[in-house]
């Protein structure tokens, strides 16, 4: 009786290295888009402004409010 030659392929569940390499660009695109969307939807929340947006070197000045003294209520 002839035994077939089998080769063990490293895997995690049904995910192999070949599958991961095939889906990596798509997963990176969706991950980047979802992160961008998360930043868009949390832009108006003060906790996120103080934690994430204000410390950005150049763009952080957009979220710092410096109103004109004449515009403040007296």
Secondary structure: elements and pairs:
Elements: E1 11-12, E2 15-16, H1 17-41, H2 46-53
Antiparallel strand pairs: 1-2
GO cellular component, one term: mitochondrion
Protein name: Cytochrome b-c1 complex subunit 10
Keywords: Membrane, Transmembrane, Transmembrane helix
Please provide a written account of the structure:
The protein has 74 residues and is mainly α. The protein contains 2 helices and 2 strands, in the order E-E-H-H. The protein has helices spanning 17-41, 46-53; strands at 11-12, 15-16. The protein has a two-stranded antiparallel ribbon with strand order 1-2. Strand 1 and strand 2 (15-16) form a beta hairpin. The longest helix is centred in the middle third of the chain and has 25 residues, at 17-41. It is rod-shaped, with a radius of gyration of 25 Å. The termini are far apart.
Low-confidence stretches: none
User: Which band does the percent of strand residues land in?
Assistant: 5-15%
Q: Spell the H/E element sequence.
A: EEHH
Helix percent band: 40-55%
Summing up helix and strand content along with how strands pair, one would put the structural category as: mainly alpha
In which order are the strands of the major sheet placed?
1-2
Overall pLDDT score: 88
Oligomer: single chain
**Termini gap:** 97 Å
- Per DSSP, the total helix count is 2
Which value, in Å, is the CA radius of gyration?
25 Å
Which shape, going by the Cα principal axes? rod-shaped
The main β sheet shows up as: 2 strands, antiparallel
The beta-strand count equals 2
């Amino acid at each position: 009786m002839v035994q077939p030659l089998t080769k063990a392929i490293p895997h995690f569940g049904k995910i192999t290295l070949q599958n991961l390499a095939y889906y990596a660009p798509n997963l990176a695109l969706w991950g980047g888009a979802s992160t961008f969307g998360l930043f868009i939807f949390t832009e108006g929340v003060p906790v996120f402004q103080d934690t994430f947006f204000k410390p950005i070197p150049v763009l952080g000045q957009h979220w710092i409010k410096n109103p004109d003294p004449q515009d403040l209520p007296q």
